[in-house]
Amino acid sequence: MSLPDLYPGFETVTVDVGEVTLFARVGGPVGAPAVVLVHGYPQSHAMWHRIAPKLAETLRVVVVDLRGYGQSSVPAPEERHAQMSKRRMGADIVALMAKLGAERFAFVGHDRGARVGYRLGFDQPERLTGLVLIDIVPTPVMWERMDATFSRKVYHWSFLAQAAPVPETLIAKAPIEHLFQTLAGWTVDKDLSAFDPGALAHYRAYFRDPARIAACCEDYRAGATIDVEHDEADRRAGRRITVPTQIIWGSVGLPADAKARESGPLVVWRDWCETLEGGPVEGGHFLAEENPEATLALMQPFLARVAD
């Protein structure tokens, strides 16, 4: 299937990183400081098309599909959903960037991609020059805050984490309807107006694939089990992320709900990070598409300071 080219002038690469192959687009000056942009659920690398070209004016930019998503390969299932753990996804990104010539790089992640980023901040901080985490709080905190109100807002956490094949079977009955309801439901306007038709074409293409729907579910099963175990082990040991970290969240995004309203995501993240800054952007969950200008206005000065 031919999909719209949202990154004219960017190189297309498919890189074998050991367990999987990752699909990526690469642009910007060769030799410039590197940054990788990593998507979340239910999206792909296409979500960064309003952000990446601007960053590529001064940085070497890599936009990538996580294992199991988009046009990257789907790993075989393993016990305890380990194949979709954020630790393994983070190792993929390190291997990808090394093969592209970047031993150290900044990491920008949204949603599930941000969870990959902060896990990498614990596991391999020496690889990172900086972290930008968009519209999340740590995974254990999400589960701890699942009261009646918040659990309805983020019902997908529990739904997708149910044992196979329950969510896979239900989604397969109407995959595109499920996809579009999810996208629209987390925006300010509660519709698809924020999304470029070309980006929607990319999201539709992978969400029609039962194997990738299953991989998304495995991602969330890992998020309910092995990812929590990894995070809690670091929290019990008193470890904190030492990489300079910026937190960006939507004014009505997911972390703006529940008890996070009382303190704000920055207060939550201070227990997890040593060097922290950030702020809100007007918008819902999908800030890179709903409000790219304001997102860039926060992100670019930070990336300029941490560039290596």
Summarize it.
With 308 residues, the chain is α/β, with parallel strands linked by helices. It contains 15 helices and eight strands. The protein has a single domain (11-306), classed as Alpha/Beta hydrolase fold, catalytic domain (Rossmann fold, 3-Layer(aba) Sandwich), CATH 3.40.50.1820.
Relative strand content: 15-25%
- The number of helical runs is 15
From the coordinates shown, what is the CATH architecture? 3-Layer(aba) Sandwich
Query: How would you describe the shape?
Result: globular
Structural class: alpha/beta
- Tell me the domain tally: 1
Task: Describe this entry's structure for a reader.
With 308 residues, the protein is an alpha/beta fold. It has a single domain, classed as Rossmann fold. The chain is built from 15 helices and 8 strands. It has helices at 52-55, 86-99, 112-123, 139-144, 148-153, 155-160, 166-173, 175-185, 197-207, 210-224, 226-236, 260-263, 265-269, 287-290, 292-306; strands at 11-16, 21-27, 34-38, 60-64, 105-110, 128-134, 245-250, 276-281. The longest helix has 15 residues, at 210-224.
